[in-house]
Amino acid sequence: MRIFTFDSTKSDTSEAFAEMRVQLDEQCPVPSFVFAATNSVHDAETVRQELAQLSAHSVHAASSCLGTMTNAADLTQNDFGVAIFAIDDPAGDYGSGFQAIETDARAAAAQATRDALRSADRAGEIPNVVWVTATPGQEEAILNGIEDVIGGDVPIIGGSAADNSVNGDWYVATSEMSGQTAVVVSV
User: Fold this and answer.
1) Is residue 166 one of the residues assigned to a domain?
2) Does residue 39 lie in a domain region?
3) To bridge 7 with a disulfide, which of 65, 83, 135, 156 should be the other Cys (CB 3.0-4.6 Å)?
């Protein structure tokens, strides 16, 4: 397994992802898993479209408050920070699931977990780890929904999406979907 990080301070979302895609293509052309974190000023649908251009097996993204930090840069001091965390693991099986949260966050998280397991070609199995990002407000129900599917013995990492001023301008996304009231689960 190899892990890579890439970042950009470009204000244009497509330019930022193009810059990172060049680096990704050189070092890790077909990542097993990609997590992207952006300052919330970036448009969710544009981020989703850019992620769909990656050759990654599994994609997970979220907005963050004022950006993110990598081993190379503190992007919280930049108004437009975008970062990618990529895993190259040909022996692993990775998958992501997205569900909008309409009325039942627990049910949405359970479905996103089942979708992630199916995406990893591991339906019905217990993963080694779960990565979750959800829009704020229903975190406990989301954790309960994930545990409804995988039990309580699997480490769950992640957190809530954010924006720069707690105005609801946050998002979560995969390469197929994005939303402001949703959950993404990766296994």
Assistant:
1) no
2) yes
3) 83
Q: Kindly report the pTM of this predicted structure.
A: 0.91
Report helix, strand or coil for 140: helix
| Residue 184: its H or E element | strand 182-186
Provide the CATH number for the domain around residue 128: 3.30.2320
pLDDT tens per residue across span 109-121: 999 999 999 999 9
Residue with tokens 């950009």, as numbered in its chain: 8
Gap between the Cα atoms of 113 and 164, Å rounded: 28
Domain that holds residue 148: 96-160+180-186
Amino acid at 50: E
Contact 156, 127 (CB under 8 A): no
pLDDT in tens, 26-72: 998 889 999 998 877 888 899 889 888 887 889 999 988 876 666 66
Split into its structural domains, the chain has a count of 2
